[in-house]
Specification:
It contains eight helices and seven strands, in the order βαβαβαβαβαβαααβ. The protein is α/β, with parallel strands linked by helices and about 250 residues long. Strand 5, helix 5 and strand 6 form a beta-alpha-beta unit. About 50% of the residues are buried.
């Protein structure tokens, strides 16, 4: 039997990057998947079609992470379609592109905080409401190495990722008593559209190339860890924040 046979997964940010790679990897191991998107409908539908071609069920559903109503509706639509939620992967997020204290605007702060913290929280809340009823479920959230160091982003992004790690630990301590397992992964630089400006920076890339791994991470690198944490192989891992950064932090950070 496949690792996730009979499991239903929601993957936020599933239209590209880490989310897309994770949605495909979960389906490859047997899961049926809800591919969440906000602005990438065509990409999300393409990922859903690729999953369907594997013989799995998949639908693409839209929700703005800054809208509690839309998040709630996506969860309700998932239940209506599949009847349960076994796995939630919070991959969607916003980056502040190192906007500093002098140049950050209220709009940038609100967008990052409301997406990365508030949106993630309400996906966890509404999905865990159903997980608690069945006394089982797994939540894996994509944070960042910026959640364990001080200079992995600007103030908005860094704050959001430290908060996200704390949120998953709190989720472990409370709903976790009802059979829910929650963990966080903390990537370094990953080759996704969200950080294309950094990938084009010779100065930034020289720091990444000087890490022990000597390369940028890929969405597939992240998906492998996420799938492990979502599986029964990781059943004794609760409330952890796992670095997957090619040795960036161990090497002294940025």
């Amino acid at each position: 039997m496949s690792k996730f046979e009979g499991k239903i997964a929601i993957v936020t940010g599933g239209s590209s990057g880490i989310g897309a790679a994770t949605a495909l990897a979960l389906a490859k191991d047997g899961a049926d998947v809800v591919v969440h998107y906000n602005g990438g409908k065509e990409r999300a539908e393409k990922i859903a079609q690729e999953i369907q071609a594997m013989g799995r069920k998949a639908i693409a559903l839209k929700a703005n992470l800054r809208s509690k109503v839309e998040i709630f509706q996506l969860v309700e639509d998932t239940i209506a379609e599949f009847g349960k939620i076994d796995i939630l992967v919070n991959s969607a997020g916003r980056f502040d592109h190192y906007t500093n204290y002098e140049t950050i605007t209220p709009e940038i702060w609100d967008e990052v905080i409301e997406t990365d913290i508030t949106g993630t929280f309400f996906f966890c809340k509404y999905a865990s409401d159903y997980m608690i009823k069945s006394r089982k479920g797994v939540i894996v959230t994509v944070a960042s190495a910026a959640g364990v160091i001080s200079n992995g982003g600007g103030p908005a992004y860094t704050t959001s990722k430290w908060a996200t790690i704390g949120m998953m630990k709190n989720l472990t301590a409370f709903p976790g008593c009802h059979g829910i397992r929650a963990n966080t992964i903390c990537p370094g630089l990953v080759a996704t559209p969200m950080v294309s400006d950094l990938l084009d920076s010779d100065d930034f890339m020289s720091k990444i190339n000087g890490t022990p791994a000597g390369r940028v991470g890929t969405p597939e690198d992240m998906a492998k860890l996420i799938c492990f944490l979502a599986s029964d192989d990781a059943e004794y891992i609760h409330g952890d924040a796992i670095l997957i950064d090619g040795g960036l932090v161990a090497n002294g950070g940025l």
